[in-house]
Amino acid sequence: MGFIGQIALILIATLFAAAISQRLGMPAVIGQLVAGVILGPGIFDVLQNTHLMQAGSEIGVIILMFIAGIESDLDLLKKYFKPAISVAAIGVLFPMIIFYGYGELMGQGFERSIFWGVIFAATSVSISVEVLREFKKLNTKEGATILGAAVVDDIIAVILLSIFVSSFGVGETQGPNLLVATIFQLLYFLGVVILVKWVAPVILRFAERIPFTARLRLPRYFFVSRWLGWPM
């Protein structure tokens, strides 16, 4: 089956699966995930994980997170950031303890048990966002707490995974130096803070002063909304 055929099959299968899932009172994303499992190598192996398929999946996640970022209330996220950190800490600590113990019980050894704990400590922000958007809970107290916790959870998991790879390596390949990896991660997060806090407002102010947009008095996200086909 060619790439276009696979895309068509994915769209049709996820459409029907999402409708069935919603009829059963569950989020549409659950049906979409089930459709992926059925069509993937887990059961029927109809779809191949090609380079184009991987690229398309990454683009889909980027668009989903972009839409979630536009719809999110930053003031609400800041307001409930402290409880989000508490939830994230529990969400990391419990899986690590449980799956580390399970790994030791199965005789996997220290390194594999730690690796299991780190992997299961990570969450899927995109799935959480999609469920919250569907139930219109993204900009509520609970939604802000869950979203903030999911983001912090993923950051902690990435840091722990970097420490794991730097300390133990992967297979016969030794990971990067722990100090170097930590410095690069700190620089990355610092760059994100600078971009959001200082660079983005300057770009938005510059965009608002463009004669065309100023003359028509268009909203800030008018062009993005029109391009995506959203109602104004």
TrEMBL record:
Listed transmembrane segments: 52-71, 83-102, 114-132, 144-166, 186-207
UniProt KW Ion transport keyword: yes
Chain ranges of the Cation/H+ exchanger transmembrane domain: 11-210
Annotated membrane topology: Multi-pass membrane protein
Chief location of this protein within or outside the cell: membrane
Localization of this protein: Membrane
Listed Pfam families: Na_H_Exchanger (PF00999)
Top-level taxon: Bacteria
Keywords noted in UniProt: Antiport, Ion transport, Membrane, Sodium, Sodium transport, Transmembrane, Transmembrane helix, Transport
Family membership noted in the UniProt record: Belongs to the monovalent cation:proton antiporter 2 (CPA2) transporter (TC 2.A.37) family.
This protein's name: Cation/H+ exchanger transmembrane domain-containing protein
Organism: Lentilactobacillus fungorum
